[in-house]
Amino acid sequence: MWNNPRLMTALANLFFAAAMTAMLAKTVLWGASQPCFMLREVVFQGELKEVQRTDLERALAGHIHKNFFAIDLKALCFAIEQVPWVRHAEIRRRWPFQLEVEIEEHTPVAFFGWERKRLINTYGEVFSAVAKKPPETSMPSLIGPEGFAQEMLEYYRQAEKLFLSIGRRPWTLVVSPRLALRMVLDDGMVVELGRQQARFPIQQRLERFVEYYSRSIAAFSGRRPDIVDMRYPNGFAFLFRGRPPQAGENKGKS
Predict the structure, then answer these.
(1) Cα 174 from chain centroid (whole Å)
(2) pLDDT given at position 80
């Protein structure tokens, strides 16, 4: 076997390739440790509306003084995503000594909780941050279990879209521990919606409220009811403060 010229040539080529690969790896490691490959610049893509530059600098500290090749991009992304208002970060190396950072900021659409100290973004995610200035339009409040925030936002969006036709806007959505919904409108009217059910979904109750709002609910007997109970599959009921409920149609509570 060892007298086979072709085999000997193939083995020699294999050993040569392995030696060159090892030499190249050592060269790369040596070059990567040299000062000329130290990171010199971090570039942030896009306009940052709420993220504070000082917070980013604190997050970058301990990372940017390393070699260009030695920086742990995953660890750096994690550090940046802990900065208030940062939802997601992506980092790319740009030869020879630059990092390019792309940041997605949270876009708040509602307050979360009774104290209105936390926020919910467009994805239904709860986060904590303080805005540089108050929002241009008043934001609603969504109150309920944090794990249910995304569903709460979907219910709110359904109501907001439907209520445009009656000139009303949902202002507060409260979800109980048993996931029963209560909505407070911008004029103070309370709408009891109850729990989601396959045979009588929340969407159907909202649509029924809109259908009867103008002709029955808004001015029942010349007076606007304080509470409208839409938990009845065949109708609804009114409640005036200090008076017993009055049915709007056939009652049959679900």
Answers:
(1) 19
(2) 92
d(CA 75, CA 67): 15
Q: How far is CA 184 from CA 162, 165, 168, 228, 234, in A?
A: 15, 17, 11, 10, 22
Residues 182 and 60 in one domain: no
Q: pLDDT band at 224, cuts 50/70/90?
A: confident
First to last CA, the chain: 88
| Same domain (yes/no): 42, 72 | yes
Q: Is residue 233 situated within a structural domain?
A: yes
Query: Which CATH number does the domain housing residue 121 bear?
Result: 3.40.50.11690
Mean model confidence pLDDT for the chain: 81
Against a cut of 0.85, is the pTM above it?
no
Would you say 112 and 120 are in contact if contact means Cβ atoms under 8 Å apart? Answer: yes
Strands 170-175 vs 86-94: parallel, antiparallel or unpaired: unpaired
5: in domain: no
Which of 250, 166, 156, 155 is closest to 212 using CA atoms?
A: 166
Question: Domain end: 89, 105, 121, which one?
Answer: 105
What residues have CB less than 8 Å from 93, skipping those under 6 apart? 68, 71, 73, 99, 100
Percent of the chain with pLDDT over 70: 73
pLDDT digits (tens, 9 = 90+) for 36-86: 556 567 788 878 899 988 898 888 887 666 665 667 888 889 999 999 999
Domain extent for 134: 108-247
